[in-house]
Design brief:
With 628 residues, the protein is mainly beta. The strands form 9 sheets. Strands 1-15-17-16-12-11-2 form a 7-stranded mixed sheet, with no helix packed on it. A 6-stranded antiparallel sheet has the order 7-8-9-10-13-14, with no helix packed on it. Strands 22, 23, 24, 25 and 27 form a 5-stranded antiparallel sheet that branches. The chain is globular and about 75 Å long. 47% of the residues are buried.
Length: 628
């Protein structure tokens, strides 16, 4: 264990000394600002301190320039824009591989009644699949009529009853765009409204911006406060309804002072101050209404959404961290001082026994953009009762951390039943078939038992971990081949069987690219997009095919693949979101039927003599939506 993490754990033990045992202390929460005046006065004090710090820094810079005779360093270049209960009752089957049951995640394909709805390259599309049909029905721009979509990305979609929600981010207008569309039983689409929500860029290569719980649309956004601006309230949570002549003053705050909280720790001047904001929008009304709760704190980005709360991990300078618990019902947040940093949202589990479980690295940058792959240092499992969250004065005791083996770049982690599984892909380079491949460990821990960690030796890297009912499958490369190892999760974890797809690689890295359809106890079908072994996933190309495997008692056998049609994709006249940041291929299982979404193609297959055979395909591309 690293010295920084050891020191922090010791401090945690000292800080928690004298506190009541976990679960017995009275519940404490953060306190909100009592009024707008109190909030304004506090911000003015911070502005004065920031201005004084800035003057001292400028004085030091002038002195340095004078004696060193070198110009002040240029400011850093801004980060490049992103150019390089369950879902609705009408959706009889889920088509999204979600982390938490009952918490739907924004994706590129959803089901509404007898229609699939796809979001791709700035447009919405519907395809009828009910009644054994496979027929394109409608398409519509995913942005407001008359608006300029340049500089905007429309990445995620959710459906609540007869409302399609498109989530986008506009670099030109600044903030999250929420587009609402009506969909009827015939699959016809109609634009309703667009709202702008103040936010920072939400993009993550591993996480999703939006969640849907019943009719509640949930967002987390870290809003960076600029204390140097004349009006810091210009960065506070706000919402406006779009109109062609919209102006900044149309934004209306959705988090009053009495729903803004802070801890008793003073902000670190110069380190940045963030409003960690959870916004809940009610989709049950045609005119969407949103309310926000925000907590002031250091920077942070990793978040996890349970059915009741959003958990946000923050990191101060050094190794001190904290985790906010922000309830979705608008009640007061709470916080716990902790150590280390999670890898991504899959590092969290709010378990039914009233605990929060988090896999930690000694150092981490959160999961903004591609940062989820860059955690470093020793590992530990934090397991704390939810009742131990408080007003910011309490720390997780050292006994809440269990040191774990392993580490490395690109760590994958997942909770499956009573187990936490984790490992890394090893050398990401493609090796020749005749080169030796070092065996990679898959670590397995029963998270509630506090027992020892098992290390299962795999002949391939760990690029993906997914549930197969109560068991698991681990997918990863060995040279040019793609391996699927089934893992039995009983009293002990054990490798059950392996399937090898020669000359293949994963075609999608996001969690939604995988889907497992249970069919009976210990039986089901796996779908995963794949490429050829010499190819790597790309933002501007579709996967070559979707591979299907049968799971029978953890024995994995190939059923075949549904392939994309070779050749150049159609010219769709794309105006927005012309890069598939969220992927473009998905396996789909609907009413006993099997589909592959491959770019603008939807291919249907059927099991014949134990093999998946193509039955038919359509293109739903804007220029050629015809049945074939």
């Amino acid at each position: 264990m690293s010295s920084a993490l050891k020191i922090t754990l010791i401090l945690s033990l000292l800080l928690s000394a004298g506190c009541h045992a976990a679960g017995t202390a009275p519940r404490k929460t953060l306190a909100p600002f009592t009024s707008e005046q109190a909030l304004s006065s506090y911000l003015q004090q911070l502005q004065a301190r920031q201005a004084a710090l800035q003057r001292e820094q400028q004085k030091l810079q002038r002195a340095t320039a004078q004696y060193m005779a070198v110009p002040a360093p240029a400011p850093p270049a801004p980060m490049a824009a992103k150019a390089a209960p369950a879902a609705s009752a009408e959706a009889a089957e889920s088509v999204t591989n979600v982390q938490t049951a009952g918490v739907d995640e924004g994706g590129i394909v959803k089901l509404h009644g007898k229609h699939l709805v796809m979001l791709r390259r700035g447009k919405l599309f519907t395809v009828q699949v009910g009644g054994k049909a496979l027929q394109p029905v409608a398409s519509l721009d995913a942005f407001a009529p008359g608006s300029d979509p340049s500089g905007s990305w429309y990445d995620e979609m959710l459906i609540d009853r007869d409302t399609v929600v498109v989530i986008g981010y506009s670099y030109s207008r600044g903030g999250t765009e929420i587009g609402l569309f009506d969909i009827d039983a015939d699959g016809k689409l109609a634009y309703r409204a667009t709202y702008h929500l103040r936010s920072n860029d939400y993009y993550s290569s591993r996480n999703y911006a939006s969640r849907l719980i019943g009719s509640k649309l949930v967002f987390y956004s870290p809003l960076s406060l600029n204390l140097r601006r004349g009006d810091p309230f210009g960065g506070f949570p706000a919402l406006r309804r779009w109109r062609p002549d919209a102006v900044p003053s149309d934004f209306k705050r959705i988090a009053p002072a009495t729903r803004i909280y802070r801890t008793d720790e003073e902000p670190e001047m110069g380190a940045g101050l963030t409003l960690h904001t959870v916004t809940v929008c009610d989709l049950a009304q045609r005119d969407m209404r949103c309310e926000a709760t925000a907590v002031m704190g250091p920077q942070g980005r990793v978040f996890y959404v349970s059915g009741e709360s959003v958990f946000v991990w923050i990191t101060r300078r050094g190794s001190d961290s904290g985790v906010f618990r922000i309830p979705l019902d608008g009640t007061a947040p709470s916080v716990l001082k902790v150590a280390g940093a999670p890898v991504d949202q899959f590092s969290f589990l709010g378990s039914a026994d009233g605990h929060l479980n988090v896999l930690l690295r000694a150092e981490g940058q959160g999961d903004a953009m591609w940062d989820g792959t860059r955690g470093r240092g020793d590992m530990a499992l934090l397991r704390v009762p939810l009742a131990s969250f408080s007003d910011g004065r309490d720390s997780a005791p050292a006994s809440s951390y269990k040191a774990l083996p392993g580490g490395g770049y690109g760590l994958q982690n997942r909770y499956v039943g009573p187990y936490l599984l984790y490992g890394n892909p090893g050398n990401p380079g493609r090796r020749k078939a005749d080169q030796a491949w070092p065996r990679q460990p898959l670590y397995a821990l029963r998270w509630a038992d506090g027992g020892s960690v098992q290390a299962l030796s795999l002949p391939h890297g760990v690029e993906r971990i997914e549930a197969l009912g109560d068991d698991a499958v681990v997918i990863g490369a060995q040279g040019k081949d793609l391996h699927f190892s089934s893992i039995r999760l009983g009293a002990q974890a054990a490798i059950a069987a392996r399937y090898i797809r020669a000359d293949a690689a994963q075609g999608e890295s996001r969690s939604h690219g995988f889907f497992y359809k249970p069919q009976a106890a210990g039986e089901g079908m796996i779908g995963l997009p794949i490429l050829g072994g010499d190819e790597r996933p790309g933002l501007n190309k579709s996967s070559a095919s979707v591979l299907y495997l049968r799971n029978s008692g953890l024995q994995l056998t190939e059923l075949g693949a549904l392939a994309a049609r070779p050749g150049q994709p159609p010219d769709d006249g794309c105006r927005a979101s012309c890069v598939d940041w969220y992927g473009n291929a998905r396996p789909l299982f609907l009413q006993g039927r099997v589909f592959a979404l491959l770019g603008y193609e939807l291919v249907e297959g059927a099991l014949k003599e134990g093999q998946i055979r193509e039955v038919r395909r359509i293109s739903y591309a804007p220029i050629a939506s015809t049945l074939r």
